[in-house]
Amino acid sequence: MMDELRRSSAHVFVADISHPVLTDGDVHHLSRVMRLKNGEVVTCSDGRGTWRVTHWKDGSVESVSAVVAEPERSVLLTVAIAPVKGDKTDLTIEKLVEIGIDRIAVLQPLERSVVRWASDKTSQVMDRYRRIARAAAMQSRRVYLPEIVGPVSLDALGADAVAMAEPGGQASWDGVRTLVIGPEGGFSPSELASSLPTIDLGSTILRAETAAIVGASLMVAHSRR
């Protein structure tokens, strides 16, 4: 990570990197929550790989560097998750973004899923997940915004480079680009009987949210070596 990104007082996403303008929400956060002082460094990104250094001044930012373009990774990683009770899905999305996952797919209810949204709530929940992902990407100084998609079916993930997290799974991390995490009750026998390989995350039984974080960490570490 570039030192300018790491050391900036804040990192934000803007619509136009050539003329960065903050949203009202970001202005409030930087001024009222973080209480930035004039002259502090704020890095701005368009979420598509380009970014620049700016200085905070009276509720806006002034560009002080040229635009930097970061190449996209050649291998993009996806974690598919089944929503779980309470705010644990929010936490999971936040941590997956911090770890470096490129795409998070929210699954339609599986056989043992506890969380099942009413159809009129789906859009609202997905919008919240995207806001959480954006905030986590700002905190972790990412210049590519992660993609949040769903709800999607298990079949829609395809079979290429996909593995399901399951105790005792025998698949290798070599070639795994999409990791599927089951709900609180785990995958059903019929789901495990699909053509997808299973991959083991360790010797203990993990909660769904823990499995997502551990599995993402293992996949990222293996892929980025």
Describe the structure.
The structure is a single chain. The protein has 225 residues and is of the alpha/beta class. Helices cover 29% and strands 21% of the residues. The protein contains six helices and eleven strands. The strands form two sheets. It has a six-stranded parallel sheet, with helices on one face. Helix 2 (24-33) links the parallel strand 1 and strand 2 (41-45). Helix 3 packs across helix 4 and helix 3 (88-99) runs parallel beside helix 6 (208-224). It is elongated. The mean pLDDT is 95.
**Strand adjacency order, main sheet:** 8-7-6-10-9-11
Show unreliable segments: none
Q: Structural class of the helix and strand makeup? A: alpha/beta
Total helical segments: 6
- Note the beta-strand portion: 15-25%
Looking at the structure, what is the overall shape?
elongated
Radius of gyration: 19 Å
> What composes the largest sheet?
6 strands, parallel
Q: Tally the beta strands.
A: 11
H/E element order = HEHEEEEEHEHEEEHEH
Termini, distance in Å? 15 Å
Secondary structure: helix percent: 25-40%
List the helices and strands and how they pair.
Blueprint: H1 3-7, E1 10-13, H2 24-33, E2 41-45, E3 50-57, E4 60-63, E5 68-69, E6 78-81, H3 88-99, E7 103-107, H4 122-139, E8 147-152, E9 162-165, E10 178-181, H5 189-192, E11 198-199, H6 208-224
Parallel strand pairs: 1-2, 6-7, 6-10, 7-8, 9-10, 9-11
Antiparallel strand pairs: 2-3, 3-4, 3-5
Helix pairs in contact: 3-4, 3-6
